[in-house]
Amino acid sequence: MPKRRVIAVGGYAALTLLCAAAAAWTVFTGIARLNLLGNAVEVRLAECHREDGARNTTHTACSGPSQNTTNARTIKVRYNGHQGETIRAAQKPWGSYEAVDTGFVSWGIAVLMPVLPLGAAVAAGAFAVREFRRARQPAQ
């Protein structure tokens, strides 16, 4: 197997895994945003402030106690709201919270967003298989 082919197979395989992970992230975020698992909690926003993000951007972060009587803890969520407002937030698998939004546009985004990284994963996987098969063919 030529070294260039091995590097190409490894690169395409790594790209396939990264795209599959991005697709999984968008699926789980969409499930949380739409509250499809039904685990949303009511949060009364006690404080909202602007936070600096990556690449010189800012976003609004709000926090407040959950209205759940069994486990009343402070929940931090990215949400463009104001103090005193009560919202629903669902926990994502990695522990952070997402504000629940079940509108038509949110459904469209949740359904269509995983398509791009999933398509990229399929394409990169096809390239990896093609390069692997080419590398295994005898030199002519």
Structural account:
This protein is an alpha+beta fold. The protein folds into two domains: 72 residues; 59 residues. The chain has a three-stranded antiparallel beta sheet with strand order 1-5-6, with helices on one face. The protein has a three-stranded antiparallel beta sheet with strand order 2-3-4, with no helix packed on it. The protein is elongated, with a radius of gyration of 21 Å. The protein starts with a helix and ends with a helix. The mean pLDDT is 87.
Descriptive keywords:
140 residues; 2 domains; 3-stranded antiparallel beta sheet; 6 strands
Topology:
Blueprint: H1 3-34, E1 41-44, E2 47-52, E3 58-65, E4 74-78, E5 86-91, E6 97-99, H2 104-112, H3 115-136
Antiparallel strand pairs: 1-5, 2-3, 3-4, 5-6
Helix pairs in contact: 1-2, 1-3
- Strands ordered across the widest β-sheet: 1-5-6
Number of domains: 2
Give the oligomer, counting copies of the same chain as homo and different chains as hetero. Answer: single chain
- Regions with little confidence, pLDDT below 50 for 5+ residues: none
Class from helix and strand fractions: alpha+beta
Helix residue percentage:
40-55%
Number of beta-strand segments:
6
Number of helices: 3
**Mean pLDDT over the full residue set:** 87
Largest sheet: 3 strands, antiparallel
What gross morphology would you assign?
A: elongated
Q: What is the string of SSEs from the N terminus onward?
A: HEEEEEEHH
Distance between the termini: 13 Å
Question: Quick recap of the structure?
Answer:
The protein is α+β, with helices and mostly antiparallel strands and 140 residues long.
